[in-house]
Input
Amino acid sequence: MYRPCCVGSYDGTRGRAVQEDVMDVPIFSDTRAHQGVTLLVVRPHPDDESIATGGMLASYSTRGVRTGVVICTGGEEGAIHDPDLDPVADRPRLHAIRAQEVRDACTILGGGLYAHPDHIMCSRVSVDAFHAAGYAHAYPEAGPPWRVAKLYAIAQIDDGQWGALLPEFKVAGVDTAFLERQRHHARRPGPETATVALDVRPYSELQRQALRAHRTQISRESFLVNLPVDLRRRAFATAYFLRLFPPTAPGEHELDLLAGLDGTARIG
Output
C-alpha cells in the first residue's frame, strides 16, 4: 500500500476539516497559518509522520519549504507505552493526548498539521483526493480547485544498509530477531526502483526528538530513540520515494521531491 505525499502549492482551504474535535482542525507549527503549503504528507496514524517521513519533513522545513501533515486516524485504539500514564484510567483521553503528541512532533519537524480521524483507507483516499482536488465539479462545496503538481509514495526499499549494520545493532543491544527473520523472506525492491533517494542524515536528531514526542506509542526503551548517534545516522540515512504522478519514465530519477518546481534538475 502506498503512503502518499503531495507536492504543490496548497492554501489550506479546499477540503479543510470543519469538526471541532482537537484532531480535526488545522494546527500550524508557526505563525504562517495563512501561507500556502508546498509539501503535504498524508499518514495513517499518529507517529507515522515521524517514523517514515520525519527526516524528510525536517529537511525541507530547514530549507524554508512550507510543509504540512495530515493524520488520518486519532490513534485511540493503540497500546499505551508511556509509564507515566495509566492504561485504563487515561484511555478515555488518549485521543487528546496523541493529538498533542503529534503537535509537539510537528513543531520539532517544522511541519504544520491538518488532521482528520475519519479516513480509514489512507492510501486510497489520498490518491483519490489528489486527483479530485483539481476538478472544480468534484466537490464544489470544498472550495476552488487545487491542481497539485506531483504525488509521491513512500517507497519500501531494501538498500542493504540494515543488513550491513546488523553486527553493530547487536553490540548496541538491539533485538535483531526481526532482521534475522527478514533474511528468509524475498528481498524488497532495491534503491534503483525509487524516484527520489533523499539524504536525511543531517536531520537524524530532529527525527529522534519528534519520535520521543510520541511517548504513548514509542517506549523509552525503543531502539528508534536509543540508537547511538552515529549508528542512527547511518541506519536512517536515506528516505526513498516513488513518484506516482506524473508517471515516471523507465529509469527516471530525481534529486529532490521539488525537482522541476524550484529549478532542481532530474538525474535520469
User: Anything to note?
Assistant: The chain has one domain: 1-156+191-226+235-263. The chain has a mean pLDDT of 82. Residues 212 and 225 are 7 Å apart (CA to CA).
